[in-house]
């Protein structure tokens, strides 16, 4: 049999034995191709001027992804070399030279990588269509299926794969060529070994790792770059200290508690588990660190998505909105431009007034919060103007009762303001509260309809009040083009005016572009990290199939029934896969909650609330992780448990 035929046969067997690894490499190729296709898509780049940054963001993320998948391939290649070292050593014993065996191993892995690349590119074409549909939906553009391949994306993907595979295989080839027969045959007996061996050192390392984990997590939430970097360092040291001390600590725990050791299946479960962890403590720590980065990436992506959507929703309530502060109200330049260039169906030019006091400001405790509030007195809007604004925004009408006032506020203040029962005195009239409305009404920062809230009073009650600023809201015949938005802002710059310009089209397009620029790369990275770490865990577990099978055959002879063996296998599986996932949850959840609470109130609500973001991030993480666990458990249960 020639080397080529032998390589092909071994490649087929390798793909079958390491099916999870092969499938992950296929998905890696699909991810790389699909995101590369976004980089070279002219259709995507023309959706917004901000999308010109998308290629750079994806390329930066791809560099990290290539490094991650490169580590996966290098690890899997080295692991397969270790598992097959006796077979390769046998080839040398029967007369093959080291360089021939090295070439054999190189060719069969190259064949596996080439097949994975070909299948992955085909799958990547479909994945690109899904990404394209999502991006077009973000911009409100109709999606039409048009399957096709991007040659530049294909070429870049091939380059990425060449870098990933050739580097890993070159290292293995060099190792085989330089190894002696004895070293090659006994290469599979190498273990990592326990780093922390003494009882005192183990306890100190374990306690110190917990303390560093808590301190590091706290430092990550402080808005200071130096402290955040220090926190990341503490987390890294904590994870490695935890797993290196944990592997040697479990036997000591049971040695001091013999009753627990021999209770139920504890001896079987933990003896097998500690033997594995003792040989891969550093690997477990690395995987746990990857899972931490994954969870933080997913949570951060959801926070940014909620931030962009929340701010855009407030700024996109009118097709066109202009506001100018009190000192510049004499300028007619923006309105002249609108009359000349933008077809308007309905519009309103109105004033936002200042009340005679700061009654609600004081009630809400906002008088000292200058950053979050731009008013020193309660802002006021006439009811007739308010009714017209609701009509322009497309909201249903709201009635104002005789002798009453309304409060229009962002949703996060609804509870506090709904409980407010204070009367309001304006222009000698005493008004009673008439309710709270919470639709979006341009109540963000700057010159707007009150930051977070505004009082709506009868027209006569607003007579004689000082004016904060004037504003103009319009419903246009068609979405305001970006050129008109740019010209209005440029007009203000040239006239040295500081008016606010907002359009629904621009706010939605900006939110869509920001989502694509930041959220897409974060999830691209998170998916690559999750697949890589889960694949390595699964390869390690499935590689023990023969040992598990012999173990359970012996237990069957000793009288253990299949139900008991299945329970022991499930327990081992649960602990093995839970160990590297628990620390990331304990570190990532507080960080995500803190990050979700950082934006201004009223933005992170509903599906973007901190609790919802944590729930979604955990669900996405464990969904992908669970697929690998299920595949590994199903395969192992079928192959190792006696009938």
Describe the protein.
The protein has 643 residues and is an alpha+beta fold. The protein folds into 4 domains: 190 residues, no CATH class; 64 residues; 189 residues, no CATH class; 134 residues, no CATH class. It has 23 helices and 9 strands. Strands 5-6-4-7-3-2-8-1-9 form a 9-stranded mixed sheet. A hairpin with a 2-residue loop joins strand 5 and strand 6. Helix 1 packs across helix 6 and helix 13 packs antiparallel against helix 19. It is elongated, with a radius of gyration of 32 Å. The protein starts with a helix and ends with a helix. About 2% of the residues have low confidence.
Number of structural units classed as domains? 4
Compute the number of strand runs: 9
Classification by helices and strands: alpha+beta
Low-confidence stretches: 192-196, 368-372
- Which strand order does the major sheet show? 5-6-4-7-3-2-8-1-9
**Fraction of residues in helices?**
55-70%
Count of DSSP helices?
A: 23
Beta percentage is 5-15%
What is the typical, i.e. mean, pLDDT?
A: 81
Distance between the termini: 37 Å
Overall morphology: elongated
**How large is the radius of gyration?**
32 Å
Please describe the biggest sheet, giving its number of strands, its sense, and whether it closes into a barrel: 9 strands, mixed
